[in-house]
Specification:
heterodimer; A: 170 residues; mainly alpha; globular; B: mainly alpha; 4 helices; 0% strand
Chain lengths: 170, 118
């Protein structure tokens, strides 16, 4: 049953990510990417990571994609420019090279028959008892308190940066 | 735990099926007599002008950026709310510090006029 859903969401994610690459209009690519994010959220649910799944939908499919669409609209690529960009030989070779490198990096994992089982501090059974969110929260607000507070400084830097660069032009 | 999401999955499947069915039926059953009036983009009863592919003001981008940042802030509030009772006062102080830092950012954006719209 779990395998069935894995192949369903994984397959849909693969198909929609092909659409992200091959559709010709930037906005269509963005919509396909949203669909990919939803499929990934499904995969996280199968792993028992509800919190990550919800964040995937809320932050990635919701907020980050809004930004992507804004960038598409701000740049406003005309059809001709978009096609011209595809013809760029150097970029094609670069993309092909990157794809080969990623494949070679992943190949060992694919060849491995079974990963050695090492149980960490949080095996699935323990997480399932209280749920993923509770465990994330407990760790985040006790052991990882400093990174959490530092994250607020990072977000502050993002606000200041975005406002500064945008307002300079006004 | 994943089993409890089966109803949501069924709901999604039914939704997609109904949507596909409606679009398919209205595509294949309908007789088309297109006229210039019918093919015009619908714009609240007004005649459309210009193209949709216009450059947008960077103001929209700033608003989107601020939205993302405060969205992420809200994301941190969810797990915090779940364990709020266990953390007691300590948890409250943690979150007040977190939000205070982000409030600085909000005041900066406010001062700089990023929230103004004229």
């Amino acid at each position: 049953m779990e395998a069935l859903f894995f192949y369903l969401f994984g397959g849909l994610a693969l198909i929609s990510s092909f659409f992200v690459i091959f559709l010709r209009k930037p906005v269509h690519n963005a919509v396909a990417l949203i669909f990919t994010f939803f499929c990934l959220a499904g995969l996280y649910l199968i792993l028992g990571a509800e919190f990550v799944a919800m964040i995937q939908v809320l932050v990635y499919a919701g907020a980050i994609m809004v930004l992507f669409l804004f960038v598409i609209m701000l740049l406003n690529l005309e059809e001709e420019e978009a096609i011209e960009g595809r013809g760029n030989k150097f970029r094609r070779w670069l993309g092909g090279f990157a794809a080969v490198v990623v494949f070679l990096l992943l190949a060992p994992v694919w060849l491995m028959q079974a990963l050695p089982v090492v149980k960490g501090t949080f095996p699935p059974e323990k997480v399932q008892e209280l749920g993923n969110t509770v465990w994330i929260a407990r760790l985040l607000f006790t052991d990882y308190l400093l990174p959490f507070e530092v994250a607020s400084v990072l977000l502050l830097a993002a606000i200041v940066g975005a406002v500064f660069f945008a307002m300079k032009r006004m | 735990m994943p089993e409890s999401y089966v109803p949501i999955f069924v709901f999604l499947v039914v939704n997609v099926a109904v949507a596909v069915l409606i679009i398919a039926l209205s595509t294949y059953l309908v007789k088309r007599k297109p006229t210039a009036q019918k093919l015009m983009p619908y714009e609240c009863g007004m005649d459309p002008f210009g193209t949709a592919r216009k450059r947008f003001s960077v103001k929209f981008f700033v608003v989107a950026m601020l939205f993302i940042i405060f969205d992420i802030e809200a994301v941190f509030l969810y797990p915090w709310a779940v364990v709020f009772k266990d953390l007691k006062l300590f948890g409250l102080i943690e979150m007040v510090v977190f939000i205070a830092v982000l409030l600085l950012g909000l005041f900066y954006a406010w001062k700089k006029g990023a929230l103004e719209w004229q």
